[in-house]
Every structure is written in structure tokens, then in C-alpha cells.
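Researcher: I'd like a structural prediction for the single chain below. Treat it as a standalone chain; there are no partners to consider.
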Amino acid sequence: MEMIIRQLWYFGASFLWGLVLMFLYDFLEVFRRKVKHGRIWLLVEDWLFWAVASILVFQMIFALNNGIIRSFFIVSFVAGMALYRKVAKEHVINAILAVIAFVFRPYVWILEKIRKIRKKSLK
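Model: Treating it as a single chain, here is the predicted structure.
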């Protein structure tokens, strides 16, 4: 019975890791929307993200199942990723962008005032 419970924990953890990784990837997507850069930089960002993600996932696999990858782990992991992308992706990205806009609103207002004052003083 204990073995089955451990496998259920493994299944649930893999599903959650799929959700968490896609959530973290959305921060990278927001960064890409706000800061434009070329294809090489995109490649480097993706490579670094997935390299770190693979290390974290391997640690989880090693901790929960002695490093043994089961087929249901892959199915659960991909299901978590797909569910997140289908249900929550746009909502999370919009929420992150709204928080950024709210936090930087005073700075944008101040910069606009400075820009108007400079424009008047240059005339």
C-alpha cells in the first residue's frame, strides 16, 4: 500500500511541476513582450530556462522515485503543462502585465511630466 501512495505522490508532483514550470515560463514571456530582442537571445533564454527546469525536475524525480522515470510521470507532467496553457496562461500573463503597469504607473507619470517640462524649456 505504501508503494502505491508513493506513486500517487509522484504522479501528483509531476502534474504540479508541469503547472509550475509553465507558470514560471509566463514570466519569461512577459519579459519578452516588454523587452524586444533577437532570435539568438530567445534561444539563449529558452535554453537556460529549460536547462534549469530539467535540473529541478530531475531532483524531484530522484527525491520521489529514486530517479526512475515512469510513463505515467511523463503523461502527468505533460497534462499539467497542457492544462495550464489551456486554462490559465492568458489570465496569468494579463495579471502580471497589470501588476507591472500598476507598479510603474507613478514612474511613467513622473517621466511624462519631466518630458513636458523639457519640451517647454527647449522652445
